[in-house]
Design a protein that fits this description.
mainly alpha; binds aspartic acid
Length: about 425
């Protein structure tokens, strides 16, 4: 097949063209035209992916749990999966802290820039603070209470309630294992049939991926450069060290931790792994949403990486909801950066608090664009740094969101491959072609 007929190449071409168009539009002042005529196609594509995320989590998790057929297997796989998710997130936060304490990007930020950024993003901060405030006012066990829905349709009405849908699906899957075979079979068949339908819909949606990605990237660039392209350049100039710290941390985590774990626990080669999940990574980069990317992450894991449906149906929807290594790492770097720029010295105790709160916050972070920055306010308050400090980083948040979402999706895929391999449910890697 000619290379340009392959979907991931078409997506890459869409991304590059979107970036080129975005830069041109920023220089020519085509912001309004882009908003009116280009950006809606990106929104349509994103809406389609989001539309399918909830049905996919629901059907996949129920089938995933029910097909495990017994409790022993469920608790073995469940504890391995959650253990690995939490461990990799804690490592990610630690890497973030090491990098930011080495580079010290906050100390390099001139006082004048701090004041300018604070004034520029005042209104944005107020909006996000409101959301964070309502989260803060709740008791310590509220996140646990929030996980348990009181109305199924209420939870299914918003993608932000994914954790509640995960809870319901696990409950339904467990109940399904326990009922008699003659009752279980038809219910299972219906749900698994629905899962097939949902996956087919993903195929259809992906046909417009190149156009969707083009529009999303073009819109991101023109929105960032709404006051002219010099705005991006000056933001990157003043926040360059901070961005570098986040990106270096993400690269270290992806290259050493994931690749190391894959080498240790599976037989798949790094290139085979990366090639298999590249479509999901590209989509994560362009949509900044691991929830919206989930359908494609699952498709890549099953069809390209060769992980069984039984494992992927359980591990990946769970991961998209609770495992966000990139987000947690970014939150650690951002928290220390803001403290440094505000002239606050963090004690070791406060840095340990960052590890704990960032791991927990990333579990509760919704898999949608910009969710990480709201949870960051809660981390900042936990270490006595004013939440208004997020004004310093909002300007570049979208760019970093794109990068951290790629790591979130890569992390889910790596853990999925490891669990599949440990359960003997990962196809052997293809023989190298000569
Ligand atoms: N956009 C991220 C995700 O969907 C969450 C975040 O860090 O804001 O994975």
């Amino acid at each position: 097949m000619a290379w340009y007929k392959q979907l991931h190449w078409q997506i890459i071409i869409g991304m590059v063209m979107g970036a080129l168009y975005g830069v041109l539009a920023a220089y020519q002042g085509w912001g309004e035209f882009t908003q009116n005529w280009i950006s809606p196609f990106g929104k349509i594509f994103l809406n389609l992916l989001k539309l399918i995320a909830m049905p996919l989590v629901l059907t996949s998790l129920i089938c995933g749990v029910a097909s495990l057929s017994d409790f022993k297997k469920l608790s073995r796989m469940g504890s391995k999966t959650i253990g690995l998710y939490l461990a990799t997130t804690a490592i990610a936060v630690t890497i973030g802290l090491c990098v930011v304490n080495t580079i010290n990007p906050g100390d390099k930020l001139p006082k004048k820039t701090v004041e300018n950024l604070k004034a520029q993003y005042e209104a944005d901060v107020a909006k996000r603070n409101e959301v964070a405030d309502s989260a803060k006012e709740r008791g310590p066990l509220q996140p646990l209470v929030d996980m348990v829905p009181d109305n199924f349709f209420g939870s299914a009405s918003s993608n932000r309630n994914m954790l509640q849908i995960v809870f319901f699906s696990l409950l339904m899957g467990i109940a399904l294992i326990q009922i008699q075979e003659d009752k279980r079979k038809p219910v299972f068949n219906v749900i698994s049939g629905l899962q097939e339908v949902v996956i087919k819909i993903v195929f259809i949606i992906m046909l417009i991926a190149p156009v969707g990605v083009f529009a999303l990237i073009a819109n991101t660039i023109t929105t960032l450069a709404k006051d002219g392209p010099h705005q991006i350049v000056s933001l990157l100039g003043s926040l360059g060290w901070y961005c570098a710290a986040v990106i270096i941390g993400l690269l270290i985590h992806a290259l050493f931790v994931y690749i190391g774990l894959l080498k240790l626990f599976t037989k798949i080669s790094v290139t085979h792994f990366l090639k298999s999940i590249s479509q999901a990574q590209l989509l994560a980069f362009s949509t900044s949403s691991s929830g919206a990317t989930l359908p494609v992450t699952m498709k890549c894991a099953e069809e390209k990486l060769g992980a069984s449906k039984e494992v992927s149906s359980f591990v990946l929807p769970l991961g998209a909801t609770i495992n966000m290594d990139g987000t947690a790492l970014y939150q650690a770097v951002a928290a220390v950066f803001i403290a440094q720029a505000s002239g606050i010295d963090l004690t070791t105790g406060q840095q340990i608090t960052i590890v704990l709160t960032a791991v927990l916050a990333s579990v509760g972070t919704a898999a949608v664009p910009g969710a990480g920055v709201v949870m960051l306010i809660i981390i900042l308050e936990a270490i006595n740094v004013p939440g208004a400090g997020i004004a310093l980083i909002l300007g570049v948040d979208r760019i970093l969101d794109m990068c951290r979402t790629v790591v979130n999706v890569t992390g889910d895929s790596a853990v999925n491959a490891i669990i599949a391999s440990s359960e003997n449910q990962l196809d052997p890697p293809p023989a190298p072609t000569t």
